[in-house]
């Protein structure tokens, strides 16, 4: 099937994410150089895992009674996708969506499979790494695609291998749920990381409201909006999977999807709280800037108000009128200083009472 | 049933509630050290209450014709939950939600029971103590779980014991309603406490707009948002219980749930009013800050405007030009003071008329 | 039936309405001291009205073929409510809602009657008096409860007595509509009163933006919010009455309820306009404050900019250098003044052109 | 039928429209003094128009096979409405709505007719004149009521008379549509007028941000809100007419109503744009005011910063210390001026580089 | 069919788009002078394209088994539209909408065809050119109308000619989808252009917050609102095409329309992000303006605070009192300078510590 009907295949929007370099969140740039395919095959009794297989192996592999999970890491070799797509009858549009990494999270029902695209965000060395994950759920198979070579689903593989929990007894829908659940669990890490970042900014802000912190707050806001944009649609995705009438999702799995939905809601609630916090950080910045301004104005006013009248008095006795009786008087200069000090003291008292300093 | 399938069991989010230490609201930190179980069993004629029973007692207990209420205080011994869960056939996900205290209020229908999670907020010594309450409603039993050892449902127990009202004649659904109603009644106390706090801040604000009050307003806002986040979903919960078609809720109980819903609406309305009040408190702060700034500016302007021209005049007669006829004139100095005082008086009048002071 | 099952019966929230003392709106404080009961009985031909009857009379009264309207003024004797409730089979929760005067307007369908709670607001001597009205509509009776002793429904009684309009030919549903319609008609008075208040504040604001006016605007805003909170749910109430399928509301009455709904919409629209007006009054206040600030700043700048350079010049010729040729020159002093006046004039011209004054 | 059952008949809200005198929009004050009735009767072949008929003529007129259009101009003689209402069986509430000119646009289905109320806005001599139009659509008749004597539907009459387009072949529903379409067409004129006004204000604002312009912007905003309030409900009206299942609207007319709906949407979109523009005009005003303030502050700062230090220097050499070697030195005075000019020049350069002027 | 029934046919709203001259977006002003018609006819095996045909050709052309695409470029000759409309039975209202270029994007179902109006935006030489495209989809034909002579659908023609992809095998619905898809693809270019513009403004803003940039930001905001207004309704259009039950859209095409919908969502998301960015650019402008103001105030305050007290001291020793012992003292002048420098240094240190400079 020629690909010339796909003029928009590589709309790469990562350059337009609205995140500056130096941002906390990194999207799709730890891209793997080699595509790695792993095939797992299991049922209640059996577990078989072949790493580093070729596309031909995928095409040739026979699905037994159990569940087959084909894990594809790396997207830059479309011919591999074509081979797999041909073997499992994936729709052309689905394949376009898998390759085009600027997708919004969504789920779609095709004839023989359910297709879900979502974003994974993970905390790696205090930075958030994002990538697009596509999960194709068929009757007894799951195919997962990811951009990077990271071992995202390591815990799922371990639970399969060690027969932990119920995962080996249940079907492909539970496997797909487990993959999504793993991704959503990572969101919690990211949310924690953001919370730390917010706290750090808040501390700096109260200590010293400088312009760079304003930069940091704006950056933070952009990051929160970015996460929001990619995690909020997940509510819809999980809800549609749960409520949908696809026969691929068994009744027993719906409880788990409902649970997943609840987790997403918890995360989106937290992100909303972050958004409000970012807004009040901005307000706080402006408040502290205006407070400093007030302080500056008060200093100016105090100094001016004290010394301008005194200067006037000094100016008066610097005049050269011939007949200025005070000038001749013996104690004038002492009285002058006395008056000056009393006046200054009175004004200082006045400002004190007004709580200006 | 092994628990190794539950990697996210203890997602404790209490550290991320967004509330600072010193806040009015305290969440889940008066946790009990010992889990206490009480079994109540009653019907129209009979009332039997056993305190401090062991999990084995629960497992072994025979449910007669009446209603059985198992009240579990404390969550830190998951094995107790496992025992009870096994006895009453609770779903694994339900048990996870009971233990994970960061739940959003929700209600869910399982095969043989209705599961409801909500937050209790109570006023204890002028502080709000929050904890998560889980209520499992079965055909002729209710199981309630709470985090702390507090005697939240003391009034319900008393009404059961003393056969007050209709509670002894009615089924387990009325008991579950009574528990929720007790929790919602406590919300009113909390709302009153918040109202007092708001009034106190408002008074301080009008008396003296200092920066600490700004802190207090922000703290207040966070607390309001926190309450909002945990009480608003209750509308949904009660509505779903009322409108739901679960056979566990009898027709006669739906009126009561409707009433509960109305109470929640009243509370959420009040919380919304609080939110608007908090916003206008912030506005008020900014207004009074800017009013003070204006006052400072006016003082500066009045002083400068009066004395700068006068100083100029004094400066003129301090010049050393040889031919300055005024200097020689006998009454110059007196006239100088006369002019000065008239000019100053005129300016003061001008400012008075402009209502600058 | 013992009342000990009603722990929340007297949740009086009037103290927490958010309205300060001195407010335009007064809620429920002209409470009557004696409960007054009036029984009206009428059909096409007959009209019978007994005032000041006792609860026993109510219990004993036989409903003929016509419509019976029991008007209860005052709520503080729950035993009267109990007696009436027992006679007409009112649900316990309904009786709680009648007594608890902090209800949100709502309508509820019980087995044999329709229960509606709403707030009446009336203009009495340029102040708004609010109270809670409960209307129970049965097959051939209407029971109305109000907090105060005011003659709210005087026009309805007059129309009944004088056989004005169609009211005597129609059933109990039309009577209930007439009561609600009377209440809504009073809202128009209140809205007019608010409009006058807004106009008065607007005038004061443009005349002299002082801080007390800010207080007045905030008070106004609170009052608008208060009205909004209690009138907006009325849209829902009337809509549900009109669209509901209760057999107690005849087809012919639905047109009237639709009309009532339209009136409510008109009122809520006006209240929304008020809210926007209050917001722009606040904006206007801030604008005029900042305009005054600008004026102050301009005065300061003009005075400083004119006199500071001149003072410098005067200072120069006050220096004691031995060799300052200008000092010796005959016309120096005259030239000095000439320069001074020209410079001052030039600056004044400059400020004029800049439109600073 | 006595009207004493209609206590709220003349709720005239025009005094409370929120528009000040001198506003662009004028509502209902070109009220006609005489009620004028015109009866038009037409079918495919016949066209008959009688102007200035009496109510008796209306009552007596026989409806042939064609469509009858009764056009009533002026509302102040309720007895005429009563006569027509009696003849065509109009509901009492409908007649109230026709007379009460404070209606929100709405459409209502009565037994034998469809009743629509809307506001007409027209550009007459660069001012907007508004009035309430009521249209009653029956099986083969249309009755239109308007407040003023204006010839609003002149184009429709002309098209009828000259047999232009399809209007003569189609039924009463198309006539009603044509009337509404004419009204909506006039909205476009009004929108253009507003656009011109906005442009004019924008120009004045950028030229000279004075306080009167602020007044004008607020006035504009009120006018936009007023239009919005009366045109937005039209979306609902046209949608309900199109989607409604009234047999009075034929299938073939629904396309036209859909088209009308699209026009309303276009107009409401434009009004929304106006609202946003008005908001940004306000922002612009505040920005330019604050820019002027900055300019003032800069002038003050430049003058003060240059002359205050120089004045100090002059003050130093005005001191009377006995031993001040510089005073004796021959070139001191020249050097003083040199220093002064260099310092002033340096500061001017500094401010230039900072782009302060 | 006479057109005199279409009084509103040429409501040209382009003059009122709210975009100033010099804007990035240009709407409908590269209008072609000649109407150009191209007829394409194809099926699986055959491809036939006739350019520059006359309206008579269109009327006379026989539709074979394949798909006929009539591409009309230019709208200013309504008689051509009439001819085509008569041939294909287009509804009068549809023809009005095609000619009236101020339409909101919409889709409508007529008896025998689906009518869709949308706006095309394209990047041509770093400016956005917009025009209205109307697409009529019939059983085996598509008619497209555009305002200008641009070769918008060149890629579609090429794919048809070269038998690329599946387009030749599929029906008229796929062709209509392809046209819309091409238009939506161009939106991505426009969005990129806007992103560049935003970046450019952002850079200028941080470099130097001048008033012209404010102008640019407002212009940008208007452009974003303009795009938003014309692209947002596309969501509805594509959704209605996909979900609609028109038999003209085959089941197999719905996947593609869903895909189109996803692209629109991506674009509208980006536009929303732009809107938020524009708002924060405005905030940034105001922040940097207020920061500059603060800087100005600090300079004023520092200079005044240092020199005003020193001037006072100089003034004191300029007084002419007879008995001022300091004046006689040998080292007074030196001490005076020492005191002055120490005081000035101390104040500078103080300001440094306060981080004022």
Say how many strands of chain A there are: 8
Instruction: State the major sheet of chain A.
Output: 8 strands, mixed
Number of helical elements of chain A: 10
* Domain module tally of chain A: 2
Instruction: Report the CATH architecture of the largest domain in chain A.
Output: 2-Layer Sandwich
Description:
Chains A, B, C, D, E: It comes from Desulfococcus multivorans DSM 2059. Chains A, B, C, D, E: Mediates influx of magnesium ions. Chains A, B, C, D, E: This is Magnesium transport protein CorA. Five copies of one chain form a homopentamer. By secondary structure, the first copy, chain A, is of the alpha+beta class. Chain A has helices at residues 55-60, 78-88, 92-99, 154-161, 172-207, 211-231, 233-243, 251-316, 325-328, 332-353, and strands at 25-27, 36-42, 47-51, 67-73, 106-109, 114-124, 127-137, 141-146. The first copy, chain A, contains ten helices and eight strands. The first copy, chain A, is rod-shaped and about 120 Å long. In chain A, α5 packs antiparallel against α6 and α6 packs antiparallel against α8 (251-316). In chain A, strands 1, 2, 3, 4, 5, 6, 7 and 8 form an eight-stranded mixed beta sheet that branches. Helices cover 54% and strands 15% of the residues of chain A. Chain A folds into two domains: 14-287, CorA soluble domain-like (Beta Polymerase, domain 2, 2-Layer Sandwich), CATH 3.30.460.20; 296-353, Methane Monooxygenase Hydroxylase, Chain G, domain 1, CATH 1.20.58. The termini of chain A are far apart. At the A-B interface, α5 and α8 of A face α3, α6, α8, α9 and α10 of B.
């Amino acid at each position: 099937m020629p690909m010339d009907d796909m003029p928009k295949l590589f709309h790469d929007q990562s350059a337009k994410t609205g995140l500056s370099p130096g941002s906390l969140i990194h999207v799709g740039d730890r891209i793997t150089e080699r595509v790695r395919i792993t095939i797992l095959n299991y049922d209640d009794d059996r577990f078989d895992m072949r790493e580093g297989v070729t596309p031909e192996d995928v095409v040739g592999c026979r699905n037994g009674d159990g569940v087959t999970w084909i894990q594809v890491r790396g997207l830059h070799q479309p011919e591999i996708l074509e081979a797999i797509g041909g073997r499992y009858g994936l729709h052309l549009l689905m394949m376009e969506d898998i390759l085009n990494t600027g997708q919004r999270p969504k789920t779609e029902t095709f004839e023989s499979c359910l297709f879900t695209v979502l974003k994974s965000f993970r905390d790696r060395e205090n930075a958030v790494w994002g990538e697009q994950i596509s999960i194709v759920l068929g009757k007894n198979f799951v195919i997962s695609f990811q951009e990077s070579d990271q071992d995202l689903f390591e815990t799922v593989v371990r639970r399969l291998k060690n027969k932990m929990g119920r995962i080996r007894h249940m079907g492909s829908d539970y496997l797909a749920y487990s993959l999504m659940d793993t991704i959503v669990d990572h969101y919690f890490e990211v949310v924690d990381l953001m919370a730390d970042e917010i706290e750090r900014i808040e501390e700096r802000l109260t200590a010293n409201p400088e312009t760079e912190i304003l930069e940091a707050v704006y950056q933070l806001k952009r990051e929160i909006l970015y996460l929001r944009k990619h995690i909020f649609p997940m509510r819809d995705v999980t809800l549609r999977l749960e409520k949908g009438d696809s026969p691929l999702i068994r009744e027993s799995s719906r409880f788990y999807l409902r649970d997943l939905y609840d987790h997403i809601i918890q995360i989106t609630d937290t992100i909303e709280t972050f958004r409000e916090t970012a807004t009040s950080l901005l307000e706080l910045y402006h408040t502290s800037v205006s407070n400093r301004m007030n302080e500056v104005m008060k200093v100016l006013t105090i100094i001016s108000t004290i010394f301008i009248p005194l200067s006037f008095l000094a100016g008066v006795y610097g005049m050269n009128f011939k007949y200025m009786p005070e000038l001749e008087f013996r104690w004038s200069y002492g009285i002058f200083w006395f008056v000056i000090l009393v006046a200054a003291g009175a004004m200082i008292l006045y400002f004190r009472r007004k709580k200006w300093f």
